[in-house]
TrEMBL record:
NCBIfam families: Por_Secre_tail. Residues 62-127 form the Secretion system C-terminal sorting domain. The lineage of its organism: Bacteria, Pseudomonadati, Bacteroidota, Cytophagia, Cytophagales. It comes from the Bacteria. This is T9SS type A sorting domain-containing protein.
Amino acid sequence: MATTGDETTYITGSFGGRADFGPFVLDSTATAQPTLFVAKLGATTALATGTAAPVSSPQLRVYPNPTAGAGVDIALTAAPVEAYELRVLNALGQLVFRQASAAGTTQWQLPTTSFSPGLYQVQVLGASSRWAQLLLVR
């Protein structure tokens, strides 16, 4: 989740199954792959909340966030020692950056100068672990 100064909130994630939101449908029942989604909520958009534990990634840090600079730093804490792949997906779920790293690597610098302004999902994927965090590029 990321927020902007104009009271806009962006939420992204993955969903398995089917859910209907008025005219919008999330449906991944036909494939084994989850559906990626991005939701934009404005000041007048109703936001439903619940008591379930929030989906967060306390072990993955992406900073500064939001960014308007040349790049961001990415760090994993308390992560298993294994090889990781750093991936960045745009709001449409398209892969815009990918970098493999050796076992034990837990810090990266992500250049963002070629990224268009928008919301991105930063993913760090390992053989037994995976993390995701939103990044807002201004």
